[in-house]
Amino acid sequence: MPIAGARPLELTGRAVREGAVPDPIDGKVLRSFDPATGEWLGEYVVDDEASVDEIVELARDATPWWAPATTRERGRCLMRWADRLAADAKELAVLLHRELGIPEHECHPEVLAALERIRASARHAERILRRHRIAAPSPRELDTTVTYRPYGVVGALGSWNDPLWTTVGVIADALAAGNTVVFKPSEFATAVGKFLVDAFRVANSAAYLNVLSIVYGDGRTGAALCRSGLDRVAFLGSLVNARRVLALCAENVVPVHISRSGRGAMIIADDADMAGAVDAAVHGAFGRAEYRIEVVYVVASARARFLEELRTTLERDRGGPAVSRAMKTARAIEIVGRHIDNALVLGATALIGGYGSVRPPFVDPIVLVDPADESLLLTERTPGPVLTVRTVPDVDEAAHLVNRDRSVSSATVSSVRHGTALAERLVAECVVVNRGLPRSQELSPGPLEFALPRCVIGGESGSTTMPAWVMRFTYLSVLRKLLMKYDMDDKLRLYRPFAVLSAHRRSEPEMYEGKA
Q1: How many separate domains does the chain show?
Q2: For the chain, which terminus, N or C, has the lower number of CB atoms within 10 Å?
Q3: 133 versus 58: which is more confidently predicted?
């Protein structure tokens, strides 16, 4: 059986030769490499189905003592994890830069944001998951008290383009809610994933070894994890892969949380603060925003000002966000090249970059203006430092185009007078007005996503979404007290709704006689 661990790589060869990007999986070995220099970073044994099942069972064995721990105790474990990562922040930032090709100046803020994300889960879990009461809407119904319990074992499938902030958020939320977690990082971000898990194990005692586990591999390992009897799956990635995960989890009816990556869009109105709009566009398109801006819709009356300000900013700030990126996968390089060629052939104008901007494994910043409607830049997602600017007659047309594009998951609006009104018209997961697309606690799922609500005293109020056995327990536990307050006619009339849920276990006369 393969060992779910890593061993130091003794080879000193190069992964990238003459611009080629290799497949990280070689038989039963997964190799991590630096896409910019081609140097190997680590070697890991791929986990097969038997190994995955064993690791999931070890995580399940840790659930009986991890789940009953208080949120404060679990929060202390998360705080120790964050402190350990903070102590190794420089090392993590260097690893992030080397394995993902992220510019160095963006890696340190990325690490700091991840630390705050873990600490936020630790600080707020007790408040979010605390026992609370729901008042009955009428005197004939009952107040309900709700508590939360963890699912059990959560499988986290990480993404390669955002392996830190979003990943630690999902893991921290699941742990804070009392679940154990089996984490499968992307095969293109394995070293970063292992660093996170190792930091948790170093920060906490050996007793917490199986609270957070890791498995290595590609999509086949992820499929084995989805079929391994998990209680919940959290997936981070593209819509295409999300469909595959949903299909796999549907085989055993495993609930899934999807944090899908999507296209970011921006609308610039004629009354926009142009300096602020350009800054948001540059950082949203070329920086490490939570949702990368791929398309900017600018009204015709503001087009000239925006393009001039954008060109000036990019030429002036050459060391800023708009720098060359080392692409991690050969497919990503192929997509960028194909989309750029397609747009230029169909009449797009190159404001920055062009045909020569794709230099495998690097892609230089590219800004293309007004591609044709059928161009791939507008119909498909484009990885890398590529920004598309499209001119529209007015904001109504811009809003229509944003809402029509199903791949848009976030948007930002730049309008001094009508920003909020325009934002309310957009159908997107997140809409930001007059600023970029920052990371925020509100964009993450939170501990409630990984905790099951349970009505422990209850009544009809607020209980219709609970499992049937929970509703029976709730109703029967208070039935005898209710019947003591009414005469015979009221007893029968009040009792009938409860009898529907419980008739298969006790007859109505038996329960009325106090045998429930």
Answers
A1: 3
A2: N
A3: 58
For the sheet with 132-134, list strands across it: 132-134, 144-150, 451-455
C-beta separation of 368 from 349 below 8 A? yes
Residue 476 domain boundaries: 467-515
Say if CB 453 and CB 148 are below 8 A apart. yes
**Confidence band, pLDDT 50/70/90 cuts, at residue 437:** low
154-187 as b/e: b if 16+ CB within 10 A = bbbbbbbbbbbbbbbbbbbbbbbbbbbbbbbbbb
Q: Answer whether residue 67 is part of any domain.
A: yes
Distance between CA atoms of residues 413 and 30, nearest Å: 42
pLDDT at 235 over 50: yes
For range 273-279, the mean pLDDT: 92
Which stretches within 405-487 are classed as H helix? 419-423, 468-483
CATH (domain of 334): 3.40.309.10
pLDDT of residue 135: 74
**Which segments of 346-502 does DSSP mark as H helices, in order?**
376-379, 395-404, 419-423, 468-483, 488-502
Local structure of 184: helix, strand or coil: strand
